[in-house]
# Entry
Amino acid sequence: MPSGRILDASFFDRETVAVARDLLGKVLVREVDGRRLWGRLVEVEAYLGPDDLASHSAGGRRSPRNEVMYGAAGHAYVYFTYGMHHCLNVTAEVPGTAGAVLLRALEPLTGVEIMRARGDQGPEARLLSGPGKIGRAFGLTLADNGRDFTRGPLGLSAGSPVPDRKVARSPRIGITRAVDLPYRFTVIGSTSLSR
DNA sequence: CCACCGATTGCT
DNA sequence: GCAATCGGTGGT
# Structure
């Protein structure tokens, strides 16, 4: 059983890349139908503001879809893509400054049967091995967009810290612009990484 | 209004 | 390698 209190706003109210690094090892908590879904973060990517051409807020773009990126830190930015996937981010930085961390992969901890009920019958370690798969297994929808991670049905708890020697930093994947920026963080050796 | 495309996934 | 599937985005 993972332990640790739910992280408070001060954890997220920092530079996005630092928040991304420190999110590794944290536990994503999801309450659905009164049941708990837990997963340990093993892969994340930072998406910054105007100068990050791969970000939804590149060039200072602002729209109903990405509005949450400009709001308070520690909130959910959920977007719908490829006509079928809901991807989950955690916002960072102070209000007015865009920044978000894409949650790309987790190791399932609790609620595996419920995750499987969404249709994926693959190996347990692969149930949350990609941003689209997290959305499906956790039942995320646009109704979750804007949710506060410090209270309510979505949260992040302390889990266990991941030492630097177990963290790899590399370019982000699945993007076509700014492909060289090293904003992807993974837990070395995890069998639940994406792709 | 229209056409193109994507922070993906799973199958050939 | 490529189809699935549809809202966002930018140009006409």
Remarks:
- Residues 45, 47, 54-56, 79, 81-85, 87, 89, 100, 102, 104, 130-133, 172-176, 194-195 of chain A lie near DNA strand B (CB under 10 Å from a C1').
- The mean pLDDT of chain A is 96.
- The first strand of chain A starts at residue 27 and ends at 32.
- Helices of chain A lie at 9-12, 16-23, 112-117, 131-137.
